[in-house]
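User: I'm new to structure prediction. If I give you an amino acid sequence, what do you actually give back? Let's try with this one:
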Amino acid sequence: MSRRDQITMSAEEIETFLGEQQTVIVASLGAAGHPHLVPMWFALIDGRIAFWTYRGSQKVLNLRRDPRLSCLVEAGETYPELRGVSIEGTAELVEDPDEVLNIGVAVTERFAGTLDEDGRNGLRPIGAKRVGVLLTPTRTASWDHRKLPTGVY
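Assistant: Good question. You get back a string of structure tokens that encode the predicted 3D arrangement of the chain. For your 153 residues, that looks like this:
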């Protein structure tokens, strides 16, 4: 078995890992073709990376021009602890106010717990300035160095 095969996560392991993490590094392409990298809090909606951001942000300008998007979620402080999921795909910009709010609620609830109606309504003015982003994956790579035998690096 190759080293790559040893450390690749299963679909279930990827879903669990993404569900445990808070931050995704998002890479869109700038006008000159250079990657524009930013950390974002995210949620999983129907198994897809989802986040919301200001409609005038650089990443949104980039995605309007070119919807290709790469995302990285990683964890671990030492080599034997390293885990990560890299996802390439196409971004869908969500502009319907109710759908944007739903994405914002999903992201917020991951960190603040379930929102009541007042909490949801409190996000509405913030959502009015934002768009949602949903990533449709075309390629996923994963690794979990904790699967390696002890001392094999």
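You can read the tokens as a compact description of the fold. Here is one thing that stands out. The first strand starts at residue 23 and ends at 29.
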